[in-house]
Design goal:
By secondary structure, the chain is mainly alpha-helical. The protein contains seven helices and no strands. The chain is globular, with a radius of gyration of 17 Å.
Length: 193
């Protein structure tokens, strides 16, 4: 009962990039599809890192929660958020400015794909706090024995991402920038939920 929602959540976590790929691949073109594909490893690595930080906090939260020491639970939660904010802001800036050079090192073709992939990643990095917040929350909720709520929020956000992808990419013609914007808006919503 505890593990299945975690597995299900991983599927929905990957759905962001999958939906971005499907929408831009069908409505923008092959270079846009390649650009979003180039961003996928970054998105998964970032999600995994911050989910790991949240899971590390899970142990401490679970122990405090088990002792019914809710003051310590709040203190740990506050410390995790402060550390995440301090760590995320420089990462956002570094990711924004280093997206292009890193993609060049990965030999992303300079046939329009590189420019689109750079823009896509820059937008993703600007919205990184939503990804971090959601993954930290998911880990901390697991610490109090709740593996279901974060999956529910993730499902809602994945549906919102799909709708926003279709809106931003097709009628608003925003291309990969629209797909990235849809992703970060959805991730912020999942965090706030």
């Amino acid at each position: 009962q505890f593990s299945l929602p975690l597995l299900f959540g991983n599927v929905f976590q990957q759905l962001y990039n999958t939906v971005d790929s499907i929408v831009v691949g069908n409505f923008v073109g092959k270079h846009a599809l390649a650009a979003v594909g180039a961003g996928f490893p970054f998105m998964m690595a970032l999600s995994s890192i911050f989910l790991g930080v949240g899971i590390a906090a899970t142990v401490m939260i679970a122990q405090a929660f088990g002792r019914q020491d809710f003051r310590e639970v709040r203190q740990i939660t506050g410390t995790v958020y402060k550390a995440a904010l301090i760590g995320t802001l420089p990462l956002m800036a570094a990711g924004f400015f280093l997206s292009g050079p890193v993609l060049r090192m990965m030999n992303v073709p300079d046939d329009g794909t590189l420019a689109m992939a750079t823009q896509y990643l820059q937008i993703i990095f600007l919205g990184l706090l939503g990804t971090v917040g959601f993954n930290l929350n998911a880990g901390m909720l697991q610490g109090v024995g709740d593996s279901v709520s974060s999956v529910r929020f993730l499902i809602i956000a994945a549906l919102i991402n799909t709708v926003l992808d279709l809106l931003f990419v097709i009628p608003l013609n925003m291309g990969v920038n629209g797909a990235a914007l849809a992703t970060i808006i959805s991730q912020w919503i999942s965090w706030l939920l």
